[in-house]
Amino acid sequence: MRHLKSLLLVIILIATSQAYAQTGVSLADAKKSKAWYESISIRGYTQIRYNRLLETNAQLKCEQCDRSWGENGGFFMRRMRIIFFGQISKRVYFYVQPDFASSASSTSLHFGQIRDAYFDVGFDDKNEFRLRLGQSKVPFGFENMQSSQNRLALDRNDALNSPLSNERDMGAFFYWAPESKRKLFSSLVRDGLKGSGDYGIFAFGFYNGQTANKPEQNNEPHIVSRITYPFEMGSQIIEASVQAYTGKYVVTSDQVSAGVGVKKDRNYIDRRAAASFILYPKPFGIQAEYNIGEGPEFNKNTDSIEVQKLSGGYITFSYLARYKNQIFIPFTRFQHYDGGKKHELDARSYNVDELEIGVEWQPNPTFELVTMYTISKRRFEDFKLQDNLQQGNLLRLQAQINF
Predict the structure, then answer these.
(1) CB crowding 122-133: b at 16 or more within 10 Å, else e
(2) Helix (H), strand (E) at residue 190
(3) Which phi and psi (to 5°) does residue 345 adopt?
(4) Which of 136, 226, 242 is closest to 177 using CA atoms?
(5) What is the pLDDT of residue 35?
(6) Contacts of residue 186, Cβ cutoff 8 Å, sequence gap at least 6
(7) Are residues 317 and 340 in contact, defined by beta-carbon separation less than 8 angstroms?
(8) CA distance 113 to 99
(9) By the 8 A CB rule, do 64 and 162 touch?
(10) Does position 157 have pLDDT exceeding 50, yes or no?
C-alpha cells in the first residue's frame, strides 16, 4: 500500500511538472502580459463576537467551535483574515490566507497564522483538470469547505468538523469539473446562495493527516475522495455529495494527560464516510450532512485512548428574503454527534445535541449581523473532566465586515 501511494504521488508530480512547463510563454508574449501586481487581488473579512447574553451555564463550552463560550469569555475577534489570490498565468492560480485572530495560548491572542497557502496547476486550457498543492481545505463535507464568511450558523457542526481542525491540512489534491459546473459553483457564492466554492465534481488527494499547521508524524498520508453534483431543477438548485477518507492519526505526547493509556506506536485508525444534501435557498433552503466512522476517543472506563465508532450530522433550514437592498435569512439548525475529537486533549469524548435558531441580516454587502439563540446539551470528557455533562442556553451575536 505504501509503495502504491508513493507511485501515485510520483505520477502527480510528473503531471504537474509537465502542466507547468506548458504554462511558459515566449519573450514576445511576456512583453504583452500583465505586470505581476495586476494579476493579484486582495480581499478579506473580520468577525467580532459576543456570546454571554442570556447565558444560563458558564461551564458550557466548545473548544473547537468558539473559545469565548462560557466563563471568562467576552468580546472576541473570531477571525481577521486578509486573502491574497490571483491567476498568475493561464494555468497557475495562487491563494494565500493568513488569519490574525489566532490564539498562541490561553493568555495570548491575535497572532498571525497561515490558514491557506496553495497553488493550482491546470492540466488543460480551461483548468477543468487541476492539481492543488500546499495547505488547503480537505475535500470532506460541504460545510467544512463553505467559507466562514458565507456560513449561516456561527460555527461548523461538530460531527463533520471534528476530524479536521481548521478544516485544512498539507497535501496534494486533484480536482475535476467541467467548465459549466465551475461557473455554477462560482455563481452559488457570488449570488449569495451560501455555496461552498469550487472543489470540483470529483476530488482525490493525499494529505498529512495531523491537521493544519502540524507536522507529519508517521510517513503515511491520509487518502480522501469526494464526488458531488450540483444541478438545476426548475428554479431550484440541488447538490448531492458522497465523500470518504482513511488514514492513521498519531496522538502526540503533548495531547495526552499523565496517566492516560495510549498505544505503543500512538497510531490510531482514522476513517470516515459522509453524505451531503443541499437545496440552495431560492428562497427556501435545506442543508443536511451525516457521517459515520471510527477514530481515537477517550474511554473513561479504562482511562485510555482507544479506537471507537462515531456518528453524527446536522440539518439546517433557511429562508432567503430580500427587502429593497437588504437581505434577511432566518435559519434553524439541529445537530448531533457521538464520538471523539482526536486533536483535543486525550482525544476528548463527545456526545452533543444542539438546537440553534437565528437570523442573518445584510443591510449592505460590506456588513452582516447574525443573532443566534443556542440550546445545547454537551457531554465532553477527558482524563480530568469525567462525567462532565453541561446543558444551557445562550444568545450569541456576530458582526462581520467584508472588504
Answers:
(1) bbeeebbbbbbb
(2) helix 179-190
(3) -55, 130
(4) 226
(5) 76
(6) 198
(7) no
(8) 5
(9) yes
(10) yes
The full set of domains in the chain, from first to last, is 40-402 (2.40.160.10)
SS3 of 164-180: CHHHEEEEEEEEECCHH
- Average of pLDDT values for 134-141? 98
Task: State the sign of the Cα–Cα–Cα–Cα dihedral 32, 34, 35, 36.
Answer: negative
d(CA 115, CA 97): 6
Average pLDDT over residues 163-168: 94
- Give me the half-sphere count of Cα atoms (radius 13 Å) on the Cβ side of residue 403: 8
C-alpha to C-alpha distance for 66 and 60, rounded to whole angstroms = 11
Helix H or strand E encompassing 270: strand 267-279
Quickly tell me which residue has 479506537 as its cell. Answer: 307
- Evaluate whether 100 touches 110 at the Cβ level (below 8 Å): yes
181: left (phi over 0), alpha (psi -120 to 50) or beta: alpha
30 is written with which cell numbers? 511576456
The predicted structure's pLDDT at residue 163: 95
* 129-137/111-122 β-pairing: antiparallel
CA distance 196 to 401: 19
Cβ-proximal residues to 276 (8 Å cutoff; 6+ apart), any chain: 141, 142, 228, 239, 240, 241, 242, 243, 288, 289
